[in-house]
Amino acid sequence: MHVSRKLLPIALLAVPVAAMAGDPPCKNVTFGSAVLTAFPNAMQACHGVKVKDNVVYAHFMGEVQSASSDEVAVIFEDYEGKDLARIKFAPGNAAAKIDGQTVPYAKMKEGTKLDFYIPQDKWGLYGDPSGFEMKIVSREDL
Protein backbone atom coordinates (compact mmCIF):
# COMPACT_ATOMS: atom_id res chain seq x y z
CA MET A 1 0.00 0.00 0.00
CA HIS A 2 2.87 2.39 0.75
CA VAL A 3 4.33 1.84 -2.70
CA SER A 4 1.17 2.92 -4.52
CA ARG A 5 0.85 6.06 -2.37
CA LYS A 6 4.39 7.04 -3.29
CA LEU A 7 3.97 6.27 -6.99
CA LEU A 8 0.68 8.13 -7.44
CA PRO A 9 2.14 11.65 -6.94
CA ILE A 10 4.99 10.83 -9.31
CA ALA A 11 2.55 9.53 -11.92
CA LEU A 12 0.38 12.64 -11.57
CA LEU A 13 3.39 14.91 -12.02
CA ALA A 14 4.41 13.05 -15.17
CA VAL A 15 1.04 13.57 -16.87
CA PRO A 16 1.43 17.32 -17.53
CA VAL A 17 4.98 16.82 -18.79
CA ALA A 18 3.86 14.08 -21.18
CA ALA A 19 0.95 16.21 -22.39
CA MET A 20 3.37 19.05 -23.20
CA ALA A 21 5.87 16.89 -25.08
CA GLY A 22 6.22 18.08 -28.66
CA ASP A 23 4.67 21.51 -28.03
CA PRO A 24 6.89 24.44 -29.00
CA PRO A 25 8.22 26.10 -25.83
CA CYS A 26 7.16 29.51 -27.15
CA LYS A 27 3.73 28.65 -28.49
CA ASN A 28 2.25 31.59 -26.56
CA VAL A 29 4.76 34.16 -27.84
CA THR A 30 3.34 36.60 -30.37
CA PHE A 31 6.28 37.61 -32.53
CA GLY A 32 5.92 40.98 -34.24
CA SER A 33 6.14 41.36 -37.99
CA ALA A 34 9.66 42.85 -37.75
CA VAL A 35 10.92 39.69 -36.03
CA LEU A 36 9.12 37.29 -38.38
CA THR A 37 10.25 39.18 -41.47
CA ALA A 38 13.90 39.05 -40.36
CA PHE A 39 13.73 35.59 -38.75
CA PRO A 40 10.78 33.55 -40.13
CA ASN A 41 11.78 30.48 -38.06
CA ALA A 42 11.82 32.36 -34.73
CA MET A 43 9.06 30.18 -33.28
CA GLN A 44 10.96 26.94 -34.03
CA ALA A 45 14.22 28.37 -32.65
CA CYS A 46 12.73 29.73 -29.44
CA HIS A 47 13.62 27.81 -26.27
CA GLY A 48 11.63 29.80 -23.75
CA VAL A 49 10.60 33.23 -22.56
CA LYS A 50 12.05 35.78 -20.17
CA VAL A 51 10.35 39.01 -19.11
CA LYS A 52 12.49 42.01 -18.19
CA ASP A 53 11.05 45.48 -17.50
CA ASN A 54 7.68 44.43 -18.98
CA VAL A 55 9.32 43.38 -22.27
CA VAL A 56 8.90 39.77 -23.40
CA TYR A 57 12.14 38.28 -24.72
CA ALA A 58 12.29 34.98 -26.57
CA HIS A 59 15.23 32.83 -25.45
CA PHE A 60 17.43 31.25 -28.10
CA MET A 61 20.39 28.91 -27.86
CA GLY A 62 23.30 28.73 -30.23
CA GLU A 63 26.81 27.46 -30.76
CA VAL A 64 29.71 29.63 -31.85
CA GLN A 65 30.91 28.73 -35.31
CA SER A 66 33.58 31.43 -35.55
CA ALA A 67 34.56 34.61 -33.74
CA SER A 68 36.72 37.64 -34.50
CA SER A 69 36.75 41.30 -33.56
CA ASP A 70 34.71 42.04 -36.70
CA GLU A 71 32.08 39.30 -36.64
CA VAL A 72 30.78 36.38 -34.60
CA ALA A 73 28.87 33.58 -36.34
CA VAL A 74 26.49 31.52 -34.23
CA ILE A 75 24.42 28.51 -35.28
CA PHE A 76 20.99 28.80 -33.66
CA GLU A 77 19.31 25.52 -32.75
CA ASP A 78 15.61 24.79 -32.87
CA TYR A 79 13.84 23.66 -29.70
CA GLU A 80 14.64 20.04 -30.59
CA GLY A 81 18.39 20.74 -30.84
CA LYS A 82 18.71 20.78 -34.65
CA ASP A 83 20.68 23.48 -36.49
CA LEU A 84 18.21 26.02 -37.85
CA ALA A 85 19.91 29.32 -38.72
CA ARG A 86 23.26 31.09 -38.77
CA ILE A 87 23.27 34.58 -37.32
CA LYS A 88 26.31 36.80 -37.62
CA PHE A 89 26.70 39.86 -35.43
CA ALA A 90 29.28 42.53 -34.72
CA PRO A 91 30.58 41.82 -31.20
CA GLY A 92 31.82 45.30 -30.34
CA ASN A 93 32.82 45.24 -26.67
CA ALA A 94 29.98 42.89 -25.65
CA ALA A 95 30.77 39.86 -23.51
CA ALA A 96 29.02 36.86 -21.97
CA LYS A 97 29.47 34.90 -18.76
CA ILE A 98 31.03 31.50 -19.48
CA ASP A 99 31.64 29.24 -16.47
CA GLY A 100 31.62 32.28 -14.18
CA GLN A 101 34.10 34.24 -16.30
CA THR A 102 33.33 37.24 -18.50
CA VAL A 103 34.48 36.45 -22.04
CA PRO A 104 34.25 38.94 -24.93
CA TYR A 105 32.18 37.55 -27.83
CA ALA A 106 35.11 38.40 -30.14
CA LYS A 107 37.23 35.85 -28.22
CA MET A 108 34.68 33.04 -28.01
CA LYS A 109 35.96 29.62 -28.95
CA GLU A 110 34.31 27.54 -31.65
CA GLY A 111 31.74 25.21 -30.11
CA THR A 112 30.91 27.48 -27.15
CA LYS A 113 27.21 27.26 -26.29
CA LEU A 114 25.53 30.62 -25.72
CA ASP A 115 22.15 32.06 -24.80
CA PHE A 116 20.59 34.91 -26.77
CA TYR A 117 17.40 36.91 -26.47
CA ILE A 118 15.21 38.69 -29.01
CA PRO A 119 12.30 40.93 -27.98
CA GLN A 120 9.04 39.43 -29.26
CA ASP A 121 8.04 42.65 -31.02
CA LYS A 122 11.26 43.99 -32.60
CA TRP A 123 14.24 42.50 -34.39
CA GLY A 124 17.26 42.84 -32.13
CA LEU A 125 19.78 40.46 -30.56
CA TYR A 126 20.81 40.54 -26.90
CA GLY A 127 23.18 38.33 -24.93
CA ASP A 128 21.04 39.12 -21.89
CA PRO A 129 17.74 41.02 -21.66
CA SER A 130 19.40 43.61 -19.40
CA GLY A 131 22.37 43.99 -21.75
CA PHE A 132 23.02 45.98 -24.90
CA GLU A 133 21.60 45.25 -28.33
CA MET A 134 24.18 43.73 -30.68
CA LYS A 135 24.32 44.72 -34.34
CA ILE A 136 23.12 41.83 -36.51
CA VAL A 137 25.17 41.52 -39.70
CA SER A 138 23.24 38.67 -41.35
CA ARG A 139 20.90 35.73 -40.81
CA GLU A 140 20.51 32.70 -43.03
CA ASP A 141 18.48 29.49 -42.79
CA LEU A 142 20.39 26.21 -42.72
Please give a structural write-up.
The protein is α+β, with helices and mostly antiparallel strands and 142 residues long. It has one domain. It has three helices and nine strands. The protein has helices spanning 2-20, 33-38, 42-45, and strands at residues 46-52, 55-67, 72-77, 83-90, 95-98, 101-104, 113-119, 125-126, 133-141. Strands 1, 2, 3, 4, 7, 8 and 9 form a seven-stranded antiparallel beta sheet that branches. A hairpin with a 4-residue loop joins β2 (55-67) and β3 (72-77). It is globular and about 35 Å long. The N and C termini lie far apart (54 Å). 21% of the residues are buried. Residues 1-20 have low confidence and may be disordered.
Question: Any chance you could write out the topology, listing elements then pairs?
Answer:
Blueprint: H1 2-20, H2 33-38, H3 42-45, E1 46-52, E2 55-67, E3 72-77, E4 83-90, E5 95-98, E6 101-104, E7 113-119, E8 125-126, E9 133-141
